[in-house]
Amino acid sequence: MNKIIFKDARVTKPQDNQPEQIKKIFPEISPVKEGDIVAIKIHPGEYGNTTHVRPVVVRTVVDLVIKQGGIPFVSDTTTLYKGMKLNAAQLIQGAAMNGFTHASMNAPFIVADGLRGGDGKKITINGEALDSITIASAIAEADSMIVISHGKGHPASGFGGAVKHLGMGCLDRAGKIKVHEVGRPSIDPEKCILCGDCVEVCPWGAITPPHIDHKKCCGELSCADACQQEAIIPPVDASDKMQKRLGEAALAPIRALKGRIGYINWVYDLTPGCDCFNFSAQHFVEDIGILGGKDPVAIDAATIDLINGLMRAEGKSIYHIWGVDPSIHLEAAEKIGCGSRKYSLVE
Questions:
Q1: In terms of domains, do 26 and 109 share one?
Q2: What is the DSSP letter of 313?
Q3: Neighbouring C-alpha atoms within 13 Å toward the C-beta of 78
Q4: Does 13 share its domain with 54?
Q5: Domain housing 225
Q6: pLDDT at 34
Q7: What is the pLDDT of residues 128-178, one digit of tens each?
Q8: 287-327: per-residue pLDDT in tens?
Q9: How many domains would you assign to the chain?
Q10: Are 154 and 246 spatial neighbours (Cβ–Cβ below 8 Å)?
Q11: Residue 194: which of 231, 233, 235 has the closest Cα?
């Protein structure tokens, strides 16, 4: 059974601050060997988001990697939606605006999939939904990796944590499209008022209301979020299919790095939306703490169980935030061989 280390947020002693907790967790989860080039995968948050993982957390991990003889770089990948992560130039600038710089982290920030997201490597995974997927080349070429995930809600996957970070955050643009393409929507002409809001948010020029060109559409669905008339309609099974692909895709970086990955879930500032939102909504539950482990499925399962434990008093679970069940992508990840949902929590 997978050991998941848990450090409770309810601490009052200075020696139990977040950097000190990470220092206690790290030796138990680190895959780093002397001379390794080590990717430290983070999400620096869209500019305007203030509840992402803090630079001091990343700096602590960087310093621990260096102490073990590793050569660290902090990394993220480009996105499919408009914002300050659509290309490497904007992503680096946006990360710096949120405080993620060489000075703050003691390591360079590298966009793992290149200037426009096209720098990737194909990995065979032999899943039920995906035969293969492309991951960011800088992730694939690293010797080992530490994944630092912000545990929070997510409108597409119900929960965003380690598996989401692997099965989406480590992919290049082509890989992300392959996961999202099952969400390519249509427009209800009776609801569409030709306002153009969907056109404004689509970076691919796929929309000419009331029509969507599926050859250009990536299925990322920011257009549906932008439509106040609810005229943009995803396929009815899009969420389940996307989650299954997400879970399977998580195997690709694991396979590329031969399993040499450690995981930290930072479970503070639990907002309903992901760090890709350019704002931070009110927390839906109190801070929980920091979890560490070597199994991405187990650490996410443990995180979700802790969240649900706090929500149970109100007769709710993380499912009620978006009406999306995150166990779908955890089950897919478990089935393809990413890990196991069975765990033991060690404080």
A1: yes
A2: G
A3: 22
A4: yes
A5: 185-233
A6: 98
A7: 999 999 999 999 999 999 999 999 999 999 999 999 999 999 999 999 999
A8: 999 999 999 999 999 999 999 999 998 999 999 999 999 99
A9: 2
A10: no
A11: 231
The encoded tokens of residue 341 equal 């949902």
**What is the DSSP annotation of 304-318?**
HHHHHHHHGGGT--T
Distance CA 282, CA 303 (A): 19
Pairing state between β 186-187 and 232-233: antiparallel
Least confident window among 8-17, 77-86, 91-100: 8-17
Give SS3 for 58.
helix
Q: Both 172 and 313 in a single domain?
A: yes
Q: Are residues 100 and 168 in the same domain?
A: yes
* CATH code of the domain covering residue 200: 3.30.70.20
Residues 172 and 256 placed together within one structural domain of the fold? yes
The 10s digit of each residue's pLDDT in 17-76 is: 999 999 999 999 999 999 999 999 999 999 999 999 999 999 999 999 999 999 999 999
pLDDT digits (tens, 9 = 90+) for 211-265: 999 999 999 999 999 999 999 999 999 999 999 999 999 999 999 999 999 999 9
What tokens were used for 142? 């690293």
Contact in structure between 19 and 56 (CB atoms under 8 Å)? yes
Ranges of beta strands (E only) in 17-165 are 37-41, 71-76, 109-111, 120-124, 132-136, 144-150, 152-154, 158-160
* Distance in angstroms (rounded) separating the CA atoms of residues 171 and 180: 12
- The answer to whether residues 57 and 18 belong to one domain is yes
Q: Say if residue 327 is in the same domain as residue 312.
A: yes
pLDDT, average across residues 75-89? 96
Rounded to a whole number of angstroms, the distance between the first and last alpha carbons of the chain is 16
In whole angstroms, give the CA distance from residue 93 to residue 101: 9
Same domain, 151 and 98: yes
Specify the CATH number for the domain of residue 67: 3.40.50
Q: How far apart are CA 72 and CA 93, in angstroms?
A: 20
